[in-house]
Design brief:
Helices cover 39% and strands 16% of the residues. By secondary structure, it is α/β, with parallel strands linked by helices. The chain has a single domain (8-205), classed as TIM Barrel (Alpha-Beta Barrel), CATH 3.20.20.70. The chain has an 8-stranded parallel β-barrel, surrounded by 6 helices. Helix 1 (19-32) runs parallel beside helix 2 and helix 1 (19-32) runs parallel beside helix 8. The protein starts with 7 loop residues before the first strand and ends with a helix.
Length: 207
């Protein structure tokens, strides 16, 4: 399961959508070319999160797309998700790795070279690094493209660029050697998620 294509990494945002619309958006994004889905829910109760995660897992399994659960290790284990993603203020990466074992995917958010190197040592399979551009969906300071390149060169695992990315600004990541781009609003708020992802895929392949 570890030979993962992180090139188009969708982080979900359910705001303003019914459950049916939410699931449909994810499916259309997968049909457009999304390679990884991260389910991110900060304010659902455990029971509701579990039920939603189970439905999303059914969908991603249908298309053989890895499902990563943000932060909630219990939910990830309960639905047998493909992995879990944690931030710097969540459970330490090495502890998460010891719990999920060596076969599950572990992603860690890191915006500094120091944190990135530590995350790799702790067993991360990839790093989510940013924010590249200002974003309303994630409260994070922006990093420069040059610093992103330094982060990429500091470790031997894929770096996924996150934060404010759209089909209009991805070209700024040219020659960074990133392993993928992570998107929220550009896909989840699109009127045509499939078409948007297809455009994003084309843009990424030109980097």
């Amino acid at each position: 399961m570890k030979n993962i294509d992180y090139s188009l990494y969708l982080v979900t945002n359910r705001a303003g959508k019914t459950e049916e619309e939410f699931i449909t958006t994810i499916e259309q994004a997968i049909l457009g070319g999304v390679t990884v889905v991260q389910l991110r829910e900060k304010d659902l109760s455990t029971g509701k999160f579990y039920r939603l995660a189970s439905k999303v897992k059914e969908l991603t399994s249908k298309y053989d797309i890895p499902l990563i659960i943000n932060d909630r290790l219990d939910i990830a284990l309960a639905i047998n998700a493909d992995g879990v993603h944690v931030g710097q203020s969540d459970m330490p990466g090495d502890i998460v790795r010891s719990i999920i074992g060596k076969n599950k995917i572990l992603g860690i958010s890191a915006a500094t070279i120091k944190d990135t190197i530590k995350a790799e040592k702790d067993g991360a399979d990839y790093i989510g690094s940013g924010a590249i551009f200002p974003t309303q969906t994630k409260d994070a300071d922006c990093i420069t493209i040059d610093y992103l390149k330094e982060i990429v060169n500091a470790v031997n695992i894929p770096i996924i660029a996150i934060g404010g990315l759209t089909e209009d600004n991805i070209e700024s990541l040219v020659n960074t050697n990133i392993g993928g781009i992570s998107l929220v609003s550009a896909i989840m708020e699109s009127n045509n998620p499939k078409k948007t992802v297809q455009k994003l895929k084309t843009e990424f392949e030109l980097l």
